[in-house]
Amino acid sequence: MSPRNSFAFRTGICLLPALLAGCASLPTSGPTGVEIVRAQRDLGKFELVELDEAVVAELEAAPSSGRGRLSVLAQPGDVDRIGPGDILQISIFEVGAALFGGRGATLDPAAPATGSGETLPPVVVGRDGSITLPWVGRIQAAGSTPDELGMTLTGRYRANSENPQVMVAIRENVNNTVVVQGDVKKPGRLPLTLARERVLDAIAIAGGLANPTADSLVNISRGDRSAEGPLSAIEPGSIDDLQLLPQDRLSITFRPRTYTLLGAAGKPAEVPFQNMRVSLAEALGRGAGPNENQADPRAVFVFRYEPANLDGSPAEGAVPVAYRVNMRDPMAYFLTQRFEMHPRDVVYVGNAGANIPTKAMQILNLFFSPFYTAKVVTQ
Question: Which CATH class, in words, describes the domain spanning 33-62+257-352?
Fold first, then answer.
């Protein structure tokens, strides 16, 4: 061995302990599975749950976070009551002595009775709920149905007309309406009918959604109460498909759901759900799976808060939980198909412990390669 090569060899031997001692400081994509378990044991700041058949069955049995959220607003109510702002069409039909447009009563009892009809100009219900009509004066209309108001007016006109009959119709409905706004194609005010429109009916009448259903939320304000739920969880006619009441306000919001892939995953990224449900197996597959040159298949984790809000943010009393799955176990591939992802979940693939010594050897190879190259050139 030449003096130059001998010096390089001795230098490398001297540097080897320092390089190995500094392995912990070598760049990695995150902690190893052993380090995560140790952190949970020593610090106790999060729960660590091994993903097995019992855990997956318990998660599947838990009620869906989206269903039943709107049903808390369910209550009976009418949609045909007259209210302030409504425009009424009132028609009066008379037989015999007439107040409106007729020839009046005849003195000959053998003569046939005469009849007449009169349609009054449109009448607007005042802010106090009352209307003013000729021969009647001011009368309360709000709170009555058109038929009920017609019967009341018939009784009032009977004092001055021989046989009056009054028909009332709501010409322009203002009180019995709901407002649909947000991410729909035709937002606006929707009049309610006796067909009893529901949440999904209102959205369809408003032209449908402007964005995918899977990532749309509906918020319903009813009086001083409100509730919000995912539109994808509402089935036609279900308890969440509420029958709408006057003055309800529906707001549709597009809120894309995502989860994050980190660590030794094939492609660390923030990934949109795109579908209504995404399993852990699908989540890993979208990231091209664990990196075979870097990942520890026994250290696949899902980090989340439980319980969580619809958007994945921590709910009141939430605790951080880490689910660990061993992908070396063939059964894990079935379990990950049943494990459902939540918004804001973090899927972390741990680094293999052997990666750090391997990186140290790579650094040593880089260190010695110039000497080997020089030796080849000089020979």
Answer: alpha beta
